[in-house]
Amino acid sequence: MAPWKQAVLSALATSYLTPSTYRSRPDLAPPQLNITVPAQNANSSEYVFIAPYSRKSTIDRPGPYIYRKDGDLVWAGTGYYAGFVANFHPTTYHGKPVLQAFQGTIDSAHGEGFGQSVLLDQNYQHVVTSTGANHRISSIHEFHVVDGKTALIEVFDIIRTNLSSYGGNSSQQWLGNGIFQEIDLTSGDLVFEWNAFDHVDPSESQTSLGWKSSNSGLTFTQAWDYFHINSVDKDHNGDYLLSSRHTSTIFKINGTDGSIIWRLGGKKPSFTQVGNWTFGFQHHARWHPQLSQPGTEAFSFFDNSGNGEITLNDVSRALVVQINHTDHTATLLRKAPAPYGLLAESQGNAQLLSQDRIFVNWGSEGAVTEFGADNEILYHAFIQSAISYRGFLGNWTGTPTEVPALVASKLSSNLVKLYVSWNGDTETKFWRFFYVNGGKKTRLGQVSRNSFETVFTWTSKLALSDSSKFIAEAIDGNGETIAQTGLIGSTANV
Fold it and tell me: Which PANTHER family does this UniProt record tie to the protein (predicted)?
């Protein structure tokens, strides 16, 4: 057995699984996290945002989820987003914190999709839905809010063209083009649009025509996805940073005329990579002006280093790069390699955080890692039987509008166990329980809220009547009641 496989099996053997079912919310079935390196601050307000799914349909409820670092559920987005969900995390819209996610369909043959991106407020209520302009349909990879007002989206645009210059015959005529747009989130108006086929010849592709049957170019559904945009960012000068997976190139695009300012990597690089380092099939390139010096630019990205057919490095990595416009060099400022020998053939992202931490989602390998300033592993978890296109750490305050859920399970004539939860709530510190009989409300006790579902057991001095009812109140850090469950009768324990 390969050493890295043995390391993964060993890690899983010493990991612990988080809960996946709840008595108060049996309709929720969050994918479990196999935590192999526990976080020291597992119950902090810095949460994990992922949207697990399975290519083999082995999880019950794919979709967006918020977890504490100990794997405890904070929010299950079941019913809030529909279809295939990706790129889920908090952002800001007109100065207010919101959640964002893509929802729609996925074309797994190309790793593309068609849908829209939806913003929800802190009450988990709809704020705005963003779609492509110019009769374009958003794909799954990018929805990046800029200054809380506009968003960058990516479009998989299938066109018909002559592919004979790229080895095609007369029957091979379908090309998967890449387009990105900047959209005004409030009005939906187009701010900017860029078309890859206008600027980058398909000969630059690292994935040749017909490298897979799904990319044969023979039919509309088998279009050759030569470019494959998977991220776009914008700098303070109005220029764009674009990652093209299938050319293994990161581009800087002029925000006025769309011309290419420079290329990192690929077949036509603008820079010499100091130290002869390599990358390829990358994702999630993001500017970091705080790391730049005069005459340089800095950015991070997730280096897959392989696509299932070609392998460039032994493991995937998070990279931070500085390019120098004086000597035309590109230097690695930081490299955070994957633990357990993880090599993600698709998907993934790298998020730079405070205190020089990096949070990495390992895409198709179904895992996340938080690195410290010296690349020490502060936290690692595998997503049980699932993967996530991107993953993030972030702070979030959730105040659901829905009523908390309460179940009262009668264990005997005078013994009741109460289960309470409030999907998406981050503010409850205690749950206070009450018995209601004949209109009289009697306080039973109070329990600290330490997990998604809180359990309280009550023994009555007398046998409980069939008309006995219970309620629970959510208490915040100031001792104030912020929500109350409905009046619930007890049911026989099953």
Answer: ASST-DOMAIN-CONTAINING PROTEIN, PQQ ENZYME REPEAT PROTEIN-RELATED
User: Please, are residues 250 and 265 in contact by the beta-carbon 8 Å criterion?
Assistant: yes
* 447 and 387 together in one domain: no
Range of the domain at 328: 15-395
Beta carbons of 94 and 149 less than 8 angstroms apart: yes
| CATH code for the domain of 416 | 2.60.40.1930
* Nearest by Cα to 283 from 310, 253, 248: 248
Q: Which amino acid is present at 5?
A: K
Any domain includes 2: no
Which pairs from 90-93 meet CB under 8 Å and 24+ separation? 90/49, 90/392, 90/394, 90/395, 90/396, 91/119, 91/145, 91/148, 92/145, 92/148, 93/119, 93/127, 93/128, 93/145, 93/148, 93/185
283 and 183 share one domain = yes
Residue 262 counted as domain residue: yes
Specify the number of domains making up the chain: 2
**pLDDT one digit per residue (tens) for the chain, 494 residues:** 454 455 555 565 556 566 678 999 999 999 999 999 999 988 888 999 999 999 887 788 999 999 999 999 999 999 999 999 999 999 999 999 999 999 999 988 889 999 999 999 999 999 999 999 999 999 999 999 999 999 999 999 999 999 999 999 999 999 999 999 999 999 999 999 999 999 999 999 999 999 989 999 999 999 999 999 999 999 999 999 999 999 999 999 999 999 999 999 999 999 999 998 999 999 999 999 999 999 999 999 999 999 999 999 999 999 999 999 999 999 999 999 999 999 999 999 999 999 999 999 999 999 999 999 999 999 999 999 999 999 999 999 999 999 999 999 988 888 999 999 999 999 999 999 999 987 789 999 999 999 999 999 999 888 887 778 999 999 999 999 999 999 988 776 65
**Is residue 54 located within the same domain as residue 164?**
yes
Q: Does 244 lie in the same domain as 132? A: yes
Q: Write down which residue in 376, 395, 414 finishes a domain.
A: 395
Q: How far apart are CA 43 and CA 65, in angstroms?
A: 16
